[in-house]
Amino acid sequence: MSEKKQLVEPRTLKGFQDYLPEDAIARKRVIRTIEGVFEKYGFLPLETPALEYLDVLSGTGGDEVNQELFRLESPEGEEISLRFDLTVPFARLLAQYPDKLKVPVRRYAIGPVWRADKPGPGRFRQFTQFDADIAGTDSVAADGEIIAIMVEIMQTLRAPSYRVLINNRKLIDALLEDCGIHEEASQKHVLRVVDKLDKVGLDNIRLELGPGRVDDSGDPIPGVQLDGDTIGKILDFVAVKGTSRADIVANLGQLLPDTDLSRRALDEMRELAEVLEGLGVDEDHACFDPSLARGLDYYTGPVFETIIPKAKEFGSVMGGGRYNGLVGRFLDREIPATGTSVGLDRLMAALTKLKVIEPSKTTVQVLVVSLGEIPKAETLRLASELRAAGIRTEAYFGKKMRMKDQLSHADRHEIPVAVILGEDEYARGEVSVKDLLGGKAGKEHIEKRDEYRKAGKDAQVTVKRNEMVANVKRILAGHESAQAR
């Protein structure tokens, strides 16, 4: 008696996720859309390995990211790590291939990144980022184009009520200088507190900038220990509003001290406002927001992020800024750069929740159905004719070959058209073309049996073999036109 086979339990690693066709098809569609926008602006694809030497990655993303690195060891015993973003590898490439990557460089990249943090709702240890960067120019026009790309991606995806928020590290530096906050640790603490404004509210921010507070769970949150006047200056700054980008800059100018740093920061934001106007980026979808503080300890100039107010629980779906110092880790000189990163998983989750993206069960447009004693080669010949015409086609070869079973397969996967080849059609040199989606839609509100059967017949026509492709294309074009409406 043979021993019972030991089966391995199929399971997914904690913090990771699988994408079945229904989700993967929608992701691919969004990826192609974003790639199209990047290439429209002259960005070129660039790829780097998933693994980097540990010293390349460590020290670039702050203490939190350093703790989240997936540290490994190469077969040669070298310290390596899975990449935590796509920006640091790009900085390495700029330093490593100066002759091949002549600045200015426009690149885009897509790929998985890894962070060993605690998994939770919407938080994974592997997730996909989609980056676009311009390196080799200090011009604010480059920052403006990155913002324009962020807006166009959201417009092309038909995202509702999105906003690109824009701030500038130099403005924050001018404020902190005026407040007498020079120590780096204190500056970072202030930025982390301000970044929580939307989550905890103004009153709690005031406490955290001062003596600290106790959160809802009873845990103490240490404060920055600033005095009342300094807290007032910071809160007045982050609360600045205006009727336009230029108006907000003017209002900020009334609050900031008249110093070289303040003047440079305000001039840069005025120029950015002019650039965005020249690019046709409207005020409703791209606005200056002095309260934006995320990532400001990393960036050196303009910083931006995209939010969808109707899906706030997913946080920022896109973000970036100017990072002029990163390449200087690898070279004895700096290469200025600016860019944005799309959080594909967050973006997909937000747009799916808002029903902007609907899951797709298949990419197949036509199912070839054969009945009776039809040679398999003939079924494949039909499929080949359709594929040669650019029509995505599946030939059915399941175990159950009844008409009902084959059409159930098409229905289950929402395949819109069936080409049916029976013995009689084969003998006459004909095929039947059935509009499966149109036939289903035409029957939805019919109650009488005779009318129901007639509607089903109207959705199916028998044509000569040489007319098959034209009839299929006509039906598919009708569905595309209906979807566009």
Describe the structure.
By secondary structure, this protein is of the alpha+beta class. It folds into 2 domains: 21-353, Bira Bifunctional Protein, Domain 2 (BirA Bifunctional Protein, domain 2, 2-Layer Sandwich); 366-484, 3-Layer(aba) Sandwich (Rossmann fold), CATH 3.40.50.800. 42% of the residues lie in helices and 18% in strands. The chain contains 19 helices and 18 strands. The chain has helices at 21-40, 54-57, 62-67, 87-96, 140-156, 169-179, 184-194, 197-200, 202-209, 228-238, 245-255, 260-278, 344-353, 376-388, 403-412, 423-428, 436-443, 449-458, 468-484, and strands at residues 44-45, 51-53, 71-73, 79-82, 105-114, 126-135, 163-168, 212-214, 220-222, 286-288, 302-307, 318-322, 337-343, 366-370, 393-395, 417-421, 430-435, 460-464. The strands form 4 sheets. The chain has an 8-stranded mixed sheet. A 5-stranded mixed sheet has the order 15-14-16-17-18, sandwiched between helices. α1 runs antiparallel to α5, α5 (140-156) crosses α12 and α6 (169-179) packs antiparallel against α12 (260-278). It is elongated and about 90 Å long. The protein starts with 20 loop residues before the first helix and ends with a helix. The model is unreliable at 445-449 (pLDDT under 50).
